[in-house]
Amino acid sequence: MTLEIPQNQPPGSESTSVVVTESTHHHQAWKWYHYFTFNVDHKVIGIQYLVTAFVFYLIGGLMAIAMRAELATPDADLLDPNLYNAFMTNHGTIMIFLWIVPSAIGGFGNFLVPLMVGARDMAFPKLNAIAFWLNPPAGLLVLASFFFGGSQSGWTAYPPLSLVTAPIAQSMWILAIVLVGTSSILGSLNFVITILFMKVPSMKWDQIPLFCWAILATSVLALLSTPVLAAGLVLLLFDLNFGTSFFKPDAGGNVVIYQHLFWFYSHPAVYLMILPIFGIMSEVIPVHARKPIFGYKAIAYSSLAICLVGLFVWVHHMFTSGTPGWMRMFFTISTLIVAVPTGVKIFGWVATLWGGKIRFTSAMLFAVGLLSMFVMGGLSGVTMGTAPFDVHVHDTYYVVAHFHYVLFGGSVFGIYAGIYHWFPKMTGRMMNETLGRIHFILTFIGTNLTFLPMHELGLQGMPRRVAMYDAQFTHLNEICTIGAYILGLSVIPFTINVLWSWVAGKKAGDNPWNALTLEWTTSSPPLVENWEVLPVVTHGPYDYGVNDRGSKIQSIAANS
Amino acid sequence: MQQIPVSLLTLVAGVIITLFSLWVGQHHSLLPIQASEQAPLVDGFFNIMVTIATALFVVVEGTILIFLVKFRHRKGDDTDGSPIEGNLPLEVFWTAIPTIIVLGLGIYSVDVFGRMGGLEVGGNSHTPVHVAQMPGSAIAATLSDPSGMESEMAVPANDPDIGIGAGANEKGQRADLVVDVTGMQFAWIFNYPDSGVTAGELHVPVGTDVQLNLSATDVIHSFWVPQFRLKQDAIPGIPTKLRFVATKVGTYPVVCTELCGGYHGSMRSQVVVHTPEEYESWLAENRIAQQPEGLKQAVAVNPAELSKSEFLAPYAQKIGVVNSH
Known about the structure:
The structure holds two protein chains of two kinds. In chain A, about 65% of the residues lie in helices and about 0% in strands.
């Protein structure tokens, strides 16, 4: 199966429709086995990313369930403490590097960005495929590391601990992260070029869908920060295997430098995980509320502001570590400032709901669920950005509560919202709404039950990353564990829904939500090169209610 | 009946939410008891943040809920919502208010942190002290040879630059009590250089200015007393300090919060805050117990140096033979 090089016009050229080909094979949809090949089509790669990431989500989730089962009692009676640490490390690693980042950026980004800007593919299709195919070996390395004891030093891999526990597993872990980091850099380059140079000429800059703005900001951030992590990890690898002593304190190394290198990437990584989700929110909410997004420019620019300010907040992870006073002061202020553009987005989405005709579809339920939970995560984030309070709660369950509200209540809810919203476009079939609602209710209850009590645990004195804890924390931990079991159950209706709907779901048609962004102007699933004739943009992506544009959503009630 | 204007409802809601948030901020009881001079500062700041967060949470979540109910799609209505794309004054308002709030919180937090002694300690943190470590023998050296410890362990010669607790008033002044704290997998060792006492738990008198000089022999550990609201990492190669005044007599947990290996969760000790008299008696007991002479007398009695009657005295007593002479 070969593809032609995308034939997009250079920027500024005449806005005319271009017929690319008359070859009939371009009208065919991909067969199932194409998804297991080195395919260079952005849609295939997007789905490859999503499915692979979801498999890793299930694996990482099982590790979480095992850890919560261990934490149901104060003693380390279920898992050996070293194995617990290996689970804890790889749960974090898999969820961040092999689930959220690849699905949000790689999955949705690849599938949607060319479609949304009216391109036939990404700028560099082969590079795109290479970027994806770096992920499965990385995942296998992480999983195989369990045969060598599993890396046990947390996803932060702080030396000297990472230099003294399970060296082979730790080296495999480092290589895995370097692979996904390389994938991220290659993918980001591709996104930046695609968005900047391959949008259809009739699309003005203020008509680019907000998801693309978010992916642009994410890519710039990834390009600036990922190499720093790679540098830190390569130095760590050298210390582990080649006798260097960059981070060995007994040989003149400095362990705090590693923390700077690590957090210079890993705090922005939080934005890498949430910015694309903000993009998904900005697409899902207007469609299902039947309203133009409120404050398009504010939401677009706030993505860029988060990208910029996000580079200057990393030291708030080191307030109790080796940082001088002035640094704590500067990074307190810069960390707090990130809350402003984030708040602007939240207010924008809330205002979008005002005066709408809100459909409680599964996609919208997850989007609104995200909105309500992200407020909680954002507020606890502000409290932790301040040095005096951070000193108390740093490295406690309060932090675990905060980042799970942001990353589960935020990113995972967003990924679910995106899947329910774009599943008809990806597969040509609708998902079942009843199963979707059951999935949402279980997920919402499970998330709050699991992570809300953790705030109290941390404030009262329970440190994080422990397999055993003081007996006074037992009751709250039991609640968390029950919540985790519910979260585990919640995946079942979703998995059944995806598998069943993909094979036998109701036919979706080209535009079941009557949305106005460009991806809905082609067939579902889209043609091999997206359109027979490139679309001409005649209206904004969110012009709901403008000149009677957009109207009836195909009835989803029939499904439920 | 005349319609109640929306602005009046908004005003009433605002007043109720404000009062509710203020109440929550003062009555949340989320934190453990306060036992250091820094704790009330942190708690006061946290209470303000809880107040603001409660108000914002109620307002935003309330708005979302109201909108979801009020603007839900009704059967048969296939029209779109009203095409409102923006409102500049509103957007300026909700950008400016959070900016003012976070800048206010930022300035306040810097002030609180300064009063806690978090900003005065400064200098170049990235100058590692070359640690004379003896891998594998560190624990043995610590326990069996207190005199040799100072030369082998990462005990700083000078006052550490990094840490928390030395405010403007204390800066440059020696604390009333200095304790060298060493973190190791999976225990804390407390050494009192002035009295030569070494202990597995921290004992301090109430109301005394205490400075902990923190170091680590193997991996990074983090010293936390939740009731003190204070935490500082013990970093191999970089000496750090934690300075505090305990304000309440009692026993509190010392928790390691930095992942330090498999049994990280079991790396727990305690800090006992005594009255000054109790502390002195604890110190005296331990000083005697740990003196080399005391050890010799108490344990290492050499039978060859004893006379026959001295050697036999315990046995004679045991079998009931009373020496009449």
